[in-house]
UniProtKB/TrEMBL annotation:
GO terms for biological process: methylation. Keywords: Methyltransferase, S-adenosyl-L-methionine, Transferase. Pfam families: Eco57I. InterPro entries: DNA_methylase_N6_adenine_CS, MethylTrfase_TaqI-like_dom, N4_N6_ade-DNA_methylase, SAM-dependent_MTases_sf. It comes from the Bacteria. It catalyses: a 2'-deoxyadenosine in DNA + S-adenosyl-L-methionine = an N(6)-methyl-2'-deoxyadenosine in DNA + S-adenosyl-L-homocysteine + H(+). This is site-specific DNA-methyltransferase (adenine-specific). The keyword Lipid metabolism does not apply.
Length: 632
């Protein structure tokens, strides 16, 4: 999308109607369409008598050297959705080749039941600006002589939470008909404004009489659990796949779609690929496996189809007929048209774990993963794995000194120099800045720590975190108090101002502030094993994890195991992928990694090994694996 076009529209107006008028008029102008019968479209045509708007139109048209296509118009409609609305409805533009593939696959699967394409009822239950409908119309027109009017009336049904999305869908489809020679005074649509979480399709007579949709396609909304408003959270509980835990908004769209299909119907989505591994996907995994749906997944792994969104996706084609297996393949999006049935891995539902997550890999890889997990004790049960602290405003509490005296640290923030009492500061580090232990000193920061730690009942293992009272903070640490006071408003707005803190300068969360000990520091995601040992038992950490132990030798041994190719094989086959061949090493993905038992002699032997090849050989032997097993 040309940035000049978006910038121009944003500078002209922020009102949907005005944007629609410019775009409709520009489309007609650049395509040299001077007369329109359709009453709906006529309402969006800028007349030359409207001097200001007409001047804006001509300036906009000058940005184009060629006629605006329907696909370009769709792209613009998606891009001019306000950032605020995108947060709510999670709309993104789906590329044409993805839409064509999903619809074609659904049709190929569905038409084996001998129903004519002219009679198929298509649904998109989060239709946005109508991209999937435009492609459905093109496919029906290519295969039949059915008119646009009849296709709109008979074949496509949609709902969207935003009124302007429904309006733009109508604009798009009518202009598509007009430019292809079918201009009518009116077109009839089955398009509704509503919330899919509560919309009742059984009240739509055509769908009721058909026994449900024949095919539902689409791109469910990309809204994470943390951004879902309270009203939507209540609606989520209506659906079994999202009635517990922190469900992302896309998850119930599986159930909504499948429940609104008739018994031979097919669902086709491009959607987030985390549901088969994530914690909040447990219920939807159980929903699939309980019903034994005919599920095929094309997983794009760490590839980002939507360049403006940090979202990792897959295509799911799902039939309601029962089957024992899931069909799975990992592929680049550009290769999807060359995929054949024999390319898929067939995985039995009975071999999958709905609670821990699905390992969608070939049989031999599943066997290796199972053997690793059953070897010894799981990492998460043998060691404590903790997430770092969370102030919710790290840039206020953390700093790197530019100089220091015996009593004070000095640092620069917002072009101003501050000094802070040393006695209120703790050392802290961000694990994803580290590769080697020797880098710890260089990357250690200072953390303003407005807490006291007390011992309960003379038990050194029972510690209590106490916020420093405002009076004490002000008298004992006046420079720190004065500094924090400058940012009181910002700190008070954490958690959208909805949470009551002990004091306004307290951290957002109290996690990981009391735990101490030897530790292995690790990032959230990495493209290679990265576990850095530190013997600084009081070093705090954030934006990462740490594995704790009271015994330094145990952690040094563990470090060698976790830095091995066996561990990385396990991660690349069980964890969540990111772009650039990065993978998550979050607690949920490493906790089940099995740690083999060792004698004292073996521990000492491994501890003293230095040669990487010798270390790998020892670990392979303990897991009863060969190099070829883990694809060296």
């Amino acid at each position: 999308m040309d940035k000049k076009i978006i910038d121009y529209l944003n500078n002209c107006t922020h009102q949907e109607t005005n944007i629609n008028k410019i775009l409709v008029s520009a489309f007609l102008h650049t395509n040299e369409i001077t007369k329109v019968k359709n009453i709906f479209i006529s309402n969006f045509i800028i007349d030359s008598n409207e001097s200001k708007e007409y001047e804006q139109l001509l300036n906009f048209v000058n940005l184009y050297k060629h006629p605006i296509s329907i696909e370009q118009l769709l792209n613009i409609f998606e891009f001019v959705i306000s950032p605020e609305d995108k947060k709510v409805n999670g709309a993104v533009f789906t590329p044409l080749y993805i839409r064509e593939y999903i619809i074609t696959q659904c049709l190929n699967k569905y038409l084996t039941f001998e129903k004519k394409i002219t009679d198929v009822k298509f649904g998109d239950i989060a239709c946005g600006c109508g991209g999937f409908f435009k492609t459905i119309v093109d496919i029906i027109k290519l295969r039949t002589d059915k008119s646009y009017y009849d296709i709109f009336k008979d074949n496509i049904f949609g709902v969207d939470i935003q009124y302007y999305s429904i309006e733009r869908t109508k604009i798009l489809l009518i202009l598509h008909a007009i430019i292809n020679g079918e201009d009518r005074t009116n077109f009839d649509f089955n398009l509704y404004q509503g919330n899919s979480l509560s919309f009742n399709w059984s009240l739509i007579s055509e769908i009721q009489q058909n026994g449900g949709f024949d095919i539902i396609v689409g791109n469910p909304p990309y809204v994470g659990a943390s951004k879902i408003d309270s009203d939507t959270k209540l609606l989520l509980k209506k659906w079994s796949v999202s009635d517990s835990g922190k469900s992302d908004l896309y998850i119930p769209f599986f159930e909504i779609g499948l429940e609104n299909l008739h018994h031979k119907g097919i669902l086709g989505y491009i959607t987030v690929n985390t549901f088969y591994k994530s914690l909040n996907g447990r219920s939807v995994r159980n929903y699939f496996s309980t019903n034994k749906f005919d599920l095929s997944i094309i997983d794009f792994g760490g590839e980002q189809i939507f360049k403006k969104r940090s979202t990792y996706t897959c295509i799911c084609i799902i039939g309601k007929k029962q089957t024992d297996c899931i069909n799975y393949i990992k592929s680049k999006s550009t290769n999807i048209k060359s995929i054949t049935e024999s390319d898929y891995i067939n995985i039995s539902y009975s071999d999958l774990n709905d609670v821990e997550g699905w390992y969608l890999v070939d049989k031999r890889t599943r066997e290796i993963i199972s053997n690793i997990e059953k070897n010894g004790r799981p990492l998460g049960k043998k060691y404590e794995i903790r997430n770092g602290f969370a102030t919710l405003k790290n840039n206020i509490y953390l700093f790197t000194p530019i100089k220091e005296t015996e009593e004070f640290f000095f640092f620069i923030k917002d072009n101003k120099e501050y000094k802070i009492e040393k006695s209120i500061c703790r050392n802290a580090i961000k694990p994803n800045t580290l590769k080697l232990e020797s880098e710890i000193a260089k990357h250690t920061e200072k953390l303003i720590f407005p807490y006291d730690i007390s011992i309960e009942s003379n038990d050194l293992n029972k510690k209590k975190l106490n916020i420093i009272e405002k009076k004490t903070l002000k008298s004992n640490y006046p420079l720190t108090y004065k500094y924090l006071l400058n940012y009181k408003k910002i700190l008070s707005e954490r958690d959208k101002g909805n949470r009551d803190y002990e004091e306004w300068y307290a951290f957002g969360r109290n996690q990981a502030l009391l735990i101490s000990g030897y530790k292995l520091l690790l990032p959230y995601i990495t493209n290679a094993p990265c576990f850095v040992y530190t013997d600084d038992q009081d070093l705090l950490f954030y934006n990462g994890y740490a594995i704790f132990s009271d015994l330094s030798d145990d952690l040094n041994i563990l470090q060698k195991i976790l830095m091995s190719k066996v561990f990385w094989f396990y991660i690349t086959n069980t964890s969540k992928p990111y772009s650039g061949n990065y993978f998550s090493v979050a607690k949920n993905y490493i906790k089940n990694f099995g740690l083999f038992e060792m004698t004292d002699e073996e521990k000492k032997f491994l501890l003293n090994l230095e040669d990487k090849n010798d270390i790998e050989n020892f670990i392979l032997k303990k897991y009863n694996l060969k190099r070829k097993d883990i694809l060296f």
